[in-house]
Amino acid sequence: MLFVLDENVLIRAIARDEVDFSSGRYVRLGNPDRSALDLVAVIMANAHTLAISVELWRRYAHHREQLQESGIVAAPNPLDVIAQAWVSRVRFIPSPPSVDLPEIFPMKDVYLAYLALASGAALVTEDEGIHDAAGDPSLGFEVLRIAEALERARQPA
Predict the structure, then answer these.
(1) Tens of pLDDT, residue by residue, the chain (157 residues)
(2) Which residues contact 85 (CB under 8 A, 6 or more apart)?
(3) Cα–Cα dist 157/151, whole Å
(4) Which residue from 13, 69, 76, 125 could staple onto 6, CB 3.0 to 4.6 Å apart?
(5) Four-way CATH pick for 2-153: 3.40.50.10610, 3.40.50.1010, 3.40.50.300, 3.10.20.30
(6) Which residues contact 88 (CB under 8 A, 6 or more apart)?
């Protein structure tokens, strides 16, 4: 199976907690959760693939840097695991084409939708705006929560 991981999934995987970064600072919310980290590990272990674009990789790297500066670090870092599996477990789509999306889809996340559509991947996110848009049949790709994606990823590719 092919997955696109929203950056909020990577942030949770690094922090092993829910993190609020709406204020520009990264603050752990005190809800320990390893499910996002488990998802990255299971995707790699079961021969699934991640779809990544230049924009998404740039955002991943930015959040990793910001989390480290905030003292929120993880070992192993999920971004390092993804980078090590780049050749065999990552489908790189440099610049996914723009397409029309339902008006309900959050504009700040269109790059994720373009990548999911171009790659045929399911988008994994905890973003409520994206999940609201997922109800629109014209969306054209599947939207999963971390727990749903983890359940699917546990099945071998």
Answers:
(1) 999 999 989 888 888 888 887 777 788 888 888 899 899 989 988 989 999 999 999 998 888 888 888 888 766 677 777 777 766 788 999 889 888 888 889 999 999 999 999 999 999 999 999 999 998 888 999 999 999 999 999 998 8
(2) 44
(3) 13
(4) 125
(5) 3.40.50.1010
(6) none
